[in-house]
Design brief:
Pfam families: HTH_IclR, IclR_C. By secondary structure, the chain is an alpha+beta fold. The protein has helices at residues 10-21, 30-37, 41-53, 77-81, 84-100, 143-149, 154-163, 177-190, 232-252; strands spanning 57-59, 66-68, 103-109, 114-121, 136-138, 193-196, 203-211, 217-226.
């Protein structure tokens, strides 16, 4: 194991880790903060107090449970607002939404094999699944993630498929490595990927990769449609070409 860098500020690292731990919890006690982060109660107390004083955590005076405040949303503001690529993508997502009348998303990968949705345009005629900015979906269970994984070297793809958690989120979730590899090979050939009720029931989605100004893959544009109003065959036939064209339009202006 590599020695920790002398440049690392461990207290800052610990504070950021505590904030991250609230991603999966609405609120946490000091004991839960300590357990989630593998730190002592004293350390958890100091970090929680510091974050509370900074306005990032709120402590309920009755239950003594901590929760994240709206100030934490600002931590991602610069990333979302200052990216020129996202500003252009916003217009393209709206155009695609107008063309197909369905939900259009833009997602980027994190370092834990998830796709993080950073932009979403939904039609007005129905209420979609609640997916606020920052929602994470495993790459292996999403069209966006599969589209990106289709660009990986074979050895790296094989490593990811063997190491990633393959969970049955729905009865249709694919957990077999050979089948997943076949889906990704298909995405490489067709230049778009699809996922049929892999993470949400009755949700069908297709996605194509968006590249940055250096030609490197940076995310994926995704169109999500409901079943049974859309069949897999119809979605692939109508939305596959659309999502490729839209992803290229974003990439061209990156």
């Amino acid at each position: 194991m590599a020695e920790p860098s002398p440049l690392m500020i461990q207290s800052l690292e610990k504070g950021l880790a505590v904030l991250e731990s609230f991603r999966a919890h609405a609120s946490l006690t000091l004991q839960e903060i300590a357990r989630e982060n593998g730190i002592t109660m004293g350390s958890a107390q100091r970090v929680a107090y510091t974050l509370e004083q900074g306005g990032y955590l709120y402590k309920d005076p009755r239950t003594k449970r901590y929760s994240v405040t709206v100030k934490a949303v600002g931590l991602g503001y610069s990333y979302l607002y200052r990216q020129p690529l996202f500003q252009h993508a916003h217009a393209v997502l709206h155009q695609v939404n107008q063309e197909c009348g369905e939900i259009v998303n833009l997602g980027v990968p994190d370092d834990q094999d998830n796709m993080v949705f950073v932009m979403r345009v939904a039609p007005a005629r129905h209420i979609p699944e609640y997916m606020p900015v920052g929602t994470r979906i495993p790459c292996v269970a999403s069209a966006s993630g599969r589209a990106l994984w289709a660009l990986l070297p074979p050895a790296e793809l094989d490593r990811k498929l063997r190491s990633v958690a393959r969970i049955k989120h729905t009865p249709r979730s694919t957990t077999d490595i050979a089948t997943l590899r076949a889906f990704i090979d298909e995405a490489r050939r067709d230049q778009y990927a699809y996922a049929d009720e892999e993470f949400y029931a009755a949700d069908l989605n297709v996605a194509a990769v968006v590249h940055d100004d250096k030609g490197m893959p940076m995310g994926a544009l995704n169109i999500s449609v409901p079943k049974p109003r859309w069949s897999l065959e119809r979605a692939r036939g109508e939305l596959g070409p659309l999502v490729i064209r839209a992803a290229r339009a974003i990439s061209k202006h990156s």
